[in-house]
Amino acid sequence: MAIAGPDDVASAPNAPHTRVEVLGNIGPNWFASVMGTGIVAIAGATLPVQMPGLRGFTQAVWIIAAVLLVVLVVLVGGHWLRNPTVARTHARNPQMAHFYGAAPMALMTVGAGAVLVGGDLIGERLAVDLDWVLWSLGTIGGLFTAVSIPFLMFTQLRVEPDAAFGGWLMPVVPPMVSAATGALLLPHMPPGTGRETMLYGCYAMFGLSLLASLNIIAMIWSRLVLYGTSGSARVPTLWIVLGPLGQSITAAGLLATAASSGAVEHRLAAAMNDFGIVFGVPVWGFAVLWIALATSLTVRTLRRGMPFALTWWSLTFPVGTFVTGTSQLAAHTHLPAFTVAAAVAYCGLLLTWILVAARTARGSVRGNLLKLAPSSDPVKASKDALS
User: Fold this and answer.
1) Where are the bilayer-spanning segments (predicted)?
2) Domain annotation covers residue 106
3) Which of these, 72, 90, 171, 370, could form a disulfide with 145 (CB 3.0-4.6 Å)?
């Protein structure tokens, strides 16, 4: 998803960057790189059309995501232990606080990848057990961010009238990821009350995240209409809107499939399958509209000299959820149009991921991205003057 970019951050003047200070700048927003990498593996594994070599590629990408997750857990967790006061400022930063939602989603993304592609490498039993652990931790963390970060916004964080941006979705989207990835675990549960409870729990998290996301998407649309964009490296965060849209389509489809496997009675399972299509297709249509708008605004900002920033990870995970959602619609409607759309969107995801991953690696090696400390200064939006 997205991370604070050059326009959102500033280095302290005349302050030497010690190793601890540099590592302290690796906040929860860096987990977006795990999400953006892991979704490449998941989307590839669920494509309606499988090509030679794709399986091996998705396994390699999943390994990269898993390694990234371990490294970031060590770095971010270690910083919290060594410098809790400094680390705590991230939670009070109106730009950074929202990205605490990235860590739970990173955990569940790697967990889902374990079930979908990791079983051939580590064994199906271990893959399922690993997913249960990561899903449980991610769900608990995601429910916490869905409550705590909005509470901070309501009571403490200073928010400007033009402050709404894609990052606001980060704390409330994790329960939707829990719903989608939880559906993958349902077939591994014994039939009975436990499986049925899990199914309804996933639907409850689906609704929690969907309604909260719709409120925030409306505020982002309103901000764009009233104030315009920031014209900065924060513009790519507009792509985050695709996250709850694509993930909700994915969740509706996967939960419908799980329901049909005996989690509930046939009548309810048929209704849930119908819901997956009746809900998914209209939301998919809005997602296509948003892709067109976000593309236009991103290209416009690029032409005006937008520099590379970690906000570009917004072009990966959200687009990946659009791919998985489209794949679910292809599976449930059996229409070739959705199959083609999923394949085209996955090609776009691959190209973007390669670009963003390469630029991130280069910036990290050079130290440019590691030396940027988060700023709490508001980012102002503006429109072009009429000629």
Assistant:
1) 30-49, 61-81, 101-122, 134-153, 165-186, 198-221, 275-298, 310-331, 337-358
2) yes
3) 171
Q: What is the mean pLDDT of residues 201-214?
A: 98
Q: Give the burial class of 229: count Cβ atoms within 10 A of its Cβ; 0-12 exposed, 13-18 middle, 19 or more buried.
A: buried
**Is residue 34, in this structure, part of any structural domain at all?**
yes
d(CA 254, CA 190): 18
Q: Record the pTM.
A: 0.90
Q: What range does the domain containing 175 cover?
A: 20-366
Beta carbons within 10 angstroms of residue 13's beta carbon? 5
What pLDDT digit, counting tens, does each position of 244-264 carry? 999 999 999 999 999 998 889
Q: What is the largest CA-CA distance in the chain?
A: 68
What residues contact residue 136 under an 8 Å CB cut-off, 6+ apart?
none
What is the average pLDDT value for the chain, to the nearest integer? Answer: 88
The tokens describing 25, both together, are 């700048």
In contact, 61 and 37? CB cutoff 8 Å: yes
Q: How many domains does the chain have?
A: 1
The two three-digit tokens of residue 118, written as one number: 């990791």
